[in-house]
Design a protein that fits this description.
Pfam families: ABC_tran (PF00005). InterPro entries: AAA+_ATPase (IPR003593), ABC_transporter-like_ATP-bd (IPR003439), CP_lyase_PhnL (IPR012701), P-loop_NTPase (IPR027417). Belongs to the ABC transporter superfamily. The chain is an alpha/beta fold. The protein has a single domain, classed as Rossmann fold. It has seven helices and ten strands. Strand 4 and strand 5 form a beta hairpin. The radius of gyration is 18 Å and the shape is globular.
């Protein structure tokens, strides 16, 4: 089976110039692959390098070394670690989603527009985008009287559900998840699990980092443990 993502010897370090160039290691020797429809879960203590690795995959961080090969439908097989900012920007809009614990959206944009705009950016017309946005907002049980409200006033759980809806509605080729259930109650977690399973069935590949081991074990196909920046301990 072809690989959607293939990571080889990924390393990210940070140089603290204010401390005489002291070098801090984020992650190193990270190698793994993800197949179509596969969900890879990564666990580890806080500070073990999980978020650093995930941000390298999304190219929020530029890797220090290593390769991140992505099977793009737009550009073919492409190394995310070294491709141009323009290509990365296009891939983020069209093919790779990223869900963090925090919602970062423009002010004075309503909740429904936040979700719909993520579809418009992929080339879908506005009417269809708003219809799909309404459907997924309903699924995540975000009250209809909040759809035309500004998310800055939402609770933490509502913001996270909106963030999930914004990325999942695109049905991306690859979805990256940073603690996707961090502030959700059990009922909301079930809604997330349903969508994740639907995405897997439709062929979306996923990489997620977790502290919620119970949730992770119900959703992932392959589990890696991260320790001091090094990935290992695969469980299928």
């Amino acid at each position: 089976m072809s690989k959607v993502l293939e990571v080889t010897d990924l390393q990210k370090s940070f140089t603290l110039h204010e401390f005489n160039g002291k070098r801090i290691l984020g992650c190193e020797s990270v190698s793994f692959s993800v197949h179509p429809g596969e969900f890879v879960g990564i666990t580890g203590k806080s500070g073990s390098g999980k978020s650093t690795m995930l941000k390298c995959l999304y190219r929020t961080y530029l890797p220090t070394s290593g390769e991140i090969w992505f099977a793009s439908e737009l550009f073919g097989r492409i190394n995310l670690a070294s491709t141009t900012e323009r290509q990365i920007s296009t891939i983020r809009r069209r093919e790779i989603g990223y869900v963090s614990q925090f919602l970062n959206v423009l002010p004075r944009v309503t909740a429904q527009d936040v979700v719909a705009n993520s579809l418009v950016e992929t080339g879908i017309d506005e009417e269809t985008s708003h219809q799909r946005a309404a459907s997924i907002l309903s699924h995540f049980q975000i009250s209809k009287n909040l759809w035309d409200a500004y998310p800055q006033n939402f609770s933490g759980g509502e913001k996270l559900r909106l963030n999930l809806a914004k990325e999942m509605v695109k049905q991306p080729r690859l979805l990256l998840l940073d603690e996707p259930t961090a502030s959700l109650d059990n009922a909301s977690k079930e809604l997330v699990k349903e969508i994740l399973n639907e995405l897997k069935q439709s062929g979306t590949s996923m990489v997620g980092i977790f502290h919620d081991l119970d949730f992770m074990e119900q959703t992932v196909d392959t589990h890696y443990k991260m320790n001091q920046g090094v990935l290992g301990g695969v469980t299928v």
